[in-house]
């Protein structure tokens, strides 16, 4: 079997359908690998994790999980962590459609429930971080946005995540808490796409996670608003039932939940307590 290029990052913009085709194709190509030594592996003879681990993770985890993947590989020579980042609902749909993966990290319990209800999770998912919304504006906040109500100004181009995506559901919860209605210029399929609209100056503001504003650096400016406290998302993680490399996948989950993992996630802006 020809081994895939190391540390492949599947494109978020390709969507779940393309991601499923990619990973299903890879699974077909490797279907006879068990008789040839099974490169994916399930741990070395010494009990240390080894082989490839495929992680489906919410787009808002892109920066922190990429860092954790690199550190996990360094701490466990012989492992290779591959990520598919995207909207949690699309990733869940891919998993329930048979896309081979070892770990699912979702941006909400609701999207995790899609996987658990289908019987595709091994055990009970565990919440490992939480996240909170923030308004992302253009650098310098030229429109002087200071509240959620300001986003209802018809002169502003505001972007939201799609309602079925965790960041979109959280945005709707915050708007309901404030008694506001907002008509965005577009609904995006994941939080990174919503933020990109602001970064490219195609929108004046977007409701995204604090972690995404943090990751964007000086390319956007963040504005806190009190209603965000009504819409904090729990992030659950789970081993998948048919994980090709369950032993290494469990080791990766343990690393994410370790003190080191929590430090990386906290540095990215996640709430870890």
UniProtKB/TrEMBL annotation:
Residues 1-29 form the signal peptide. Gene3D superfamilies: Periplasmic binding protein-like II. Keywords: Metal-binding, Signal. The keyword Coiled coil does not apply. The keyword Metal-binding applies. It holds the Pfam family SBP_bac_11. Belongs to the bacterial solute-binding protein ModA family. This is Molybdate ABC transporter substrate-binding protein. It comes from Streptomyces chlorus.
